[in-house]
Amino acid sequence: MSLPSHGANPSHLYRASGVMKPSSVMDFSVNTNPYGPPNWLKEMWPSFFEAVEDYPDPSGYKAAKLIAERFALSPENIMLGNGAAEIIHFIARHAAGQKVVIVTPAFSEYEEACRAYGCRTEYVPVDVQNWKLPIEILVEQAKEAAVLFICTPNNPTGQVFQTEDLLTLLKETRSFGTMIVIDEAFYDFAGDESITSEITSFSHLAVLHSMTKMYAVAGLRIGYLAASKEIINKLKPYRPHWNVNAIALQVAQKIASDAEYAVRTRKWIDKERERMIRELMMIGFVVLPSAVNFYLIKDSALDNQKPLLQFLLKQGIVLRHTENFHGLDGQWLRAAIKKEQENDQLLSALKEWKSQC
Ligand SMILES: Cc1ncc(COP(=O)(O)O)c(C=O)c1O
Asked: Each residue of 12-71: pLDDT tens digit?
C-alpha cells in the first residue's frame, strides 16, 4: 500500500505502514500552529448557530474587503476558496491539457490537481542544500506554459526564495501569457514579507494564501487568491456558487483583522525552531535551515528514511514522509515545530534511535 499523499490524519499513515497505532500519538506531520486557534474563536461559537441558517454570501465580500485592505488592494482582486487547495484545483482546471511547470520540491497538491485535469507537468528542481531559483531555466520553461507554480516559503523544505529573484522572473515572463502562481500559505510564519501587493504591477501574478496554517483552522477550509481582475475573471467560472461556508466567512473576517496573533506565534516558533535545529544537529542529524514552523531532517546513514519513520511511528511519533515530493523521494522527513514538551519527546526518541545505531 502506498503512503498517504499528505500529512495529518495519522491513522492513514499507520494503516499504510503496517505499524500498530499506539493509543496516543503526537502528530508532527501536520504543520499548523501548535498553539491551536486564537481564543476568540470559542467566543464566536453562538454566532455560528445563526450564521448557518442562511446561504453564505457567494462573493464573501466582507472578508474579501478586509483581506484586500491588508495588502492595499481592491476586493475584486481577492477570490476566496474552500481552503487554498480548492483554488489550486481551479488553476489546474484553467490549465487543463496544457503545460504546467512546478518548481520542486513543492506541495504535492499542484501535481495531483494537474493530473486530474490532464495537464502536461514539467518539474524544475531546486537543490535543497543550495536554495536558489534557477531563473534562466524557469524563463525558458515558462514560455510555453499556461501556469508556473512556485511555493515560498516552501513546503516541504521551509526555505524562502529571494524576493529579488521572484521579481526578476516576473519581469522576464511578463509578455508570455503564463500565470505565475506564488503559494505563500506559510508567509506569516517567515516574517510578514509578502509579494501580494505586486499583483498591481504584474497582471500575470497570482498569490495563494491559506488561513489554515497560522490560525490552526484546517477543518474550516479557508484560503484565498490575490490576483489581477483578469486572472480572477478567468478562474471565476470554476468556482461553485457558495464555495465557502458561512462559518468560515465569519472566521476569515476575524482573521483578516488579527495580525497580532501571527506576530506572537512567530516569536515563539522562531525560538523553538532554533533550539530544535541546534539540538538535532548536536545529536548527529542533518537538518536543513528553515524560516517557518517545520523543517527537513535526515539520518545521513540512511538513503531512504523509512526505517526511522517506522521507529518513530512505533513510539507514537508521526513525521511526514517525503516519498511523494519530487526531488526528495523519501531521503528526508519533515517535522513540524510543536509545543516544547512534544518537541522534547521527539528529541528523546531520536536520541534513542541514535544510541541503537
Ligand atoms: C504550500 C501549501 N499550499 C496550500 C495548502 C492548502 O491549504 P488549505 O488548508 O488552505 O487548503 C497547503 C496545505 O498543506 C500547503 O502546504
From this structure: 888 888 888 889 999 999 999 999 999 999 999 999 999 999 999 999 999 999 999 999
Q: Is 244 in the pocket of ligand 1 (CB under 6 A)?
A: no
The CATH code of domain 40-256 reads 3.40.640.10
Taking the C-alpha atoms of residue 118 and residue 300, their distance in angstroms, rounded to an integer, is: 37
Q: Is the CB of 155 under 6 A from ligand 1?
A: yes
Report domain extents, the chain. 10-30+261-356, 40-256
Q: In terms of CATH architecture, what is 10-30+261-356?
A: Alpha-Beta Complex (3.90)
- CA dist 272 and 252 (Å) reads 28
Report the amino acid identity of residue 113.
Answer: A
Which tens digit of pLDDT belongs to each residue from 117-147? 999 999 999 999 999 999 999 999 999 999 9
Same-fold call for 10-30+261-356 versus 40-256 = no
Enter the C-alpha cell of residue 165.
529573484
Give the residue, out of 80, 184, 213, 222, with the most ligand 1 atoms within 8 A of its beta carbon, to mutate for a pocket test. 213
Q: Is the CB of 14 under 6 A from ligand 1?
A: no
* CA separation for the pair 215, 109 (Å, rounded): 21
Q: How far apart are CA 337 and CA 69, in angstroms?
A: 31
Listed residue (18, 93, 5, 1) closest to 309, CA to CA: 18
